[in-house]
């Protein structure tokens, strides 16, 4: 079944052999477009946070690209049409299964500048300088996305110039904003005025309205430099110079050398088995893979299926696994290139069994009794995309600027937003930060270090072949959302759209409470409260994208209904 939402017009002009991929006569029309929440297709599928980005990815595959090409083109398009989280000024992680059967993981997380210091967000008295790691120039880590895309291109079929052109066209010719996007841009005008030294494309004297066209000329020119000079078009030359000039106008600390030295890193994926499936996840510096491993293994031998989907006992069991995994995250996890992360010990079966020894069905556990650890606040404005092709390539990518619109600082003349990823470090190890959370020693700031993440791009294999490609934004709620989505499918047998859309819950050790979405069933809340849990209601948890491979080999791609997310395929 295909749900179609008419966003801007009843007319969707599609040309079968377009000259330009993007344009009124191209396959992707940025002025009139439709959006699908679900597709079932045979040849290739993309799910991402924006309909135009998903369409770009699909068209790239239709024109001979594979899933890696589509993932690159989709990310670049998101950097234009989804400025809240899509980016070239941030970073991310990719997990993939190649057609050959090889599984790979790519880390293009931002790094702290060589001038970063452990106490850079503290005043002389050792108090946290509130907001400094979140907004403005000092909040930014050295961006990793462009380096990551060029590494990803090793596994693609098409020239990078073809993959980046749709993003250039979307930036240069503009695209039509939805009401939601216009409202979002209006909501950050005061911040943009505060944290920018040069006027940028997002700033406007009068309010933005749905139907307005957003043109980003500076960004288009930056993307053209990348098209023409490769990664050096970003990390060196004019773009790098513009970053440095921006830093000097706003007392930032990223240097030309930092830009030139940035490297994306291939990592060994974090792989484990669950009930006959193979889960391929992201290793450090993302906590996502290990957390998923811990949580899934803590419930694997328990009677989840007997309890039933979202029964009080099933939710309680899953929550108790979440509590224990997050306590470990806080204590032990950080950039493994800088600190020793006891990955094997944390995922050892005997250890995980022992962790659950004090779990009592029907009775709330306590975070005070659970071994002390420390947590870091993380923003939830991240974005995920999934791609699969008929050759057997499957790509799962989560990228971020951290907060919505990152540091709110646009590089003057270069048109892209800088991240505020530095806030994912422990700004002051051991002491509660602005959000009442505390960070661990393993995640303290150091020059060149990568900040701990929760991003959980994941691929589930069955008999060595892709079964599910999944991921989500959502800060610390990312691992719990991915965990619930996978269990919803494997254990509870939910349809993919139900696995994605059904209300979610989240426990992260501290605070000792279960956060639930508004639509979470009232009777289950009441039952959990009777067990002794504190329940808090909150906004959306996650915005999951998922592609499931059906028994007949078709791809069922589902985009979350919590946003404008869209699934495309053919
Ligand atoms: N900034 C969110 C994360 O990396 O988990």
Topology:
Layout: E1 4-6, E2 34-36, E3 38-41, E4 44-48, H1 51-62, H2 67-81, E5 91-97, E6 103-108, H3 145-152, H4 160-173, E7 175-176, H5 179-187, H6 189-195, E8 213-214, H7 217-229, H8 232-235, H9 237-249, H10 256-261, E9 265-267, E10 270-274, E11 277-281, H11 288-300, H12 304-307, H13 312-332, H14 343-346, H15 349-355, E12 381-389, E13 394-402, E14 458-462, E15 465-471, H16 477-490, H17 496-501, E16 505-506, E17 514-517, H18 522-531, E18 535-538, E19 545-549, E20 555-559, E21 566-569
Parallel strand pairs: 17-18
Antiparallel strand pairs: 1-2, 3-20, 4-12, 4-21, 5-6, 5-13, 6-9, 7-8, 10-11, 11-14, 12-13, 14-15, 15-19, 16-17, 19-20
Helix pairs in contact: 1-2, 2-4, 4-7, 11-13, 11-16, 13-18
The structure holds glycine (GLY).
Task: Give a quick precis of the structure.
This protein is of the alpha+beta class. It has 18 helices and 21 strands.
Description:
The chain has 570 residues and is α+β, with helices and mostly antiparallel strands. The protein has two domains: 323 residues, no CATH class; 211 residues, Orthogonal Bundle (Serum Albumin, Chain A, Domain 1). 32% of the residues lie in helices and 17% in strands. The protein has 18 helices and 21 strands. The chain has a seven-stranded antiparallel β-sheet with strand order 3-20-19-15-14-11-10. A seven-stranded antiparallel β-sheet has the order 9-6-5-13-12-4-21, covered by helices on one side. α1 runs antiparallel to α2. The longest helix has 21 residues. The N terminus is likely disordered. Glycine (GLY) binds next to β13.
């Amino acid at each position: 079944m295909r749900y179609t939402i008419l966003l801007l017009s009843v007319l969707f002009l599609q040309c079968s052999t377009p000259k330009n991929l993007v344009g009124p006569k191209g396959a992707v029309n940025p002025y009139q477009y439709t959006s699908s929440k679900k597709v079932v297709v045979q040849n290739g599928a993309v799910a991402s946070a924006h309909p135009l980005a998903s369409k770009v990815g699909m068209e790239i595959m239709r024109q001979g690209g594979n899933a890696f090409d589509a993932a690159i083109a989709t990310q670049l398009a998101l950097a234009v049409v989804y400025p809240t989280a899509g980016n070239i000024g941030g970073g991310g992680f990719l997990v993939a299964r190649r057609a050959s059967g090889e599984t790979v993981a790519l880390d293009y997380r931002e790094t702290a500048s060589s001038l970063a210091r452990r106490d850079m967000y503290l005043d002389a008295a050792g108090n946290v300088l509130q907001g400094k790691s979140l907004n403005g120039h000092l909040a930014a880590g050295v961006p990793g996305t462009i380096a990551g895309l060029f590494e990803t291109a090793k596994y693609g079929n098409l020239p990078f110039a073809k993959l980046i052109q749709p993003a250039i066209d979307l930036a240069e010719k503009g695209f039509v904003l939805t009401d939601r996007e216009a409202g979002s841009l209006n909501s950050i005008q005061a911040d943009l005025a505060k944290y920018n030294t040069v006027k940028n494309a997002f700033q406007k004297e009068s309010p933005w309205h749905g139907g307005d066209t957003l043109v980003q000329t500076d960004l288009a020119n930056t993307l053209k430099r990348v098209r023409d000079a490769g990664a050096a078009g970003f990390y060196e030359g004019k773009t790098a110079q513009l970053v440095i000039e921006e830093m000097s106008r706003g007392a930032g600390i990223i240097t030309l050398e930092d830009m030139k030295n940035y490297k994306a890193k291939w990592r060994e994926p974090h792989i484990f088995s669950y009930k006959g499936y193979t889960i391929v996840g992201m290793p450090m510096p993302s906590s996502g893979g290990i957390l998923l491993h811990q949580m899934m293994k803590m419930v694997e031998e328990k009677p989840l299926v007997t309890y039933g989907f979202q029964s009080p006992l099933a939710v309680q069991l899953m929550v108790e696994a979440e509590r224990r995994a997050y306590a470990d995250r806080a204590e032990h996890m950080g950039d493994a290139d800088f600190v020793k992360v006891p990955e094997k010990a944390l995922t050892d079966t005997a250890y995980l069994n022992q962790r659950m020894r004090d779990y009592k069905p029907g009775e709330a556990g306590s975070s005070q009794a659970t071994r002390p650890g420390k947590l870091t606040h993380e923003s939830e404005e991240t974005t995920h995309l999934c791609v699969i092709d008929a050759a057997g390539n499957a790509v799962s990518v989560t990228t971020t600027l951290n907060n919505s619109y990152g540091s709110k600082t646009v590089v003057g003349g270069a048109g892209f937003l800088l991240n505020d990823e530095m806030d994912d470090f422990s700004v002051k190890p051991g002491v509660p930060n602005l959000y009442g959370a505390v960070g661990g020693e393993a995640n303290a700031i150091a020059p060149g270090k990568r900040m701990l993440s929760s991003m959980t791009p994941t691929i589930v294999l069955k008999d060595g072949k892709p079964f599910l490609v999944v991921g989500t934004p959502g800060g610390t709620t990312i691992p719990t959302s991915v965990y619930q989505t996978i269990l919803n499918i494997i254990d509870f047998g939910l349809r993919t759209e139900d696995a994605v859309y059904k209300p979610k819950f989240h426990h992260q050790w501290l605070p000792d409470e279960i956060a639930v979405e508004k639509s979470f069933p009232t009777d289950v809340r009441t039952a959990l409260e009777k067990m002794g849990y504190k329940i808090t209601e909150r906004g959306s948890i996650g915005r999951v994208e998922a592609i499931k491979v059906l028994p007949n080999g078709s791809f069922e791609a589902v985009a979350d209904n919590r946003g404008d997310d869209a699934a495309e395929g053919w």
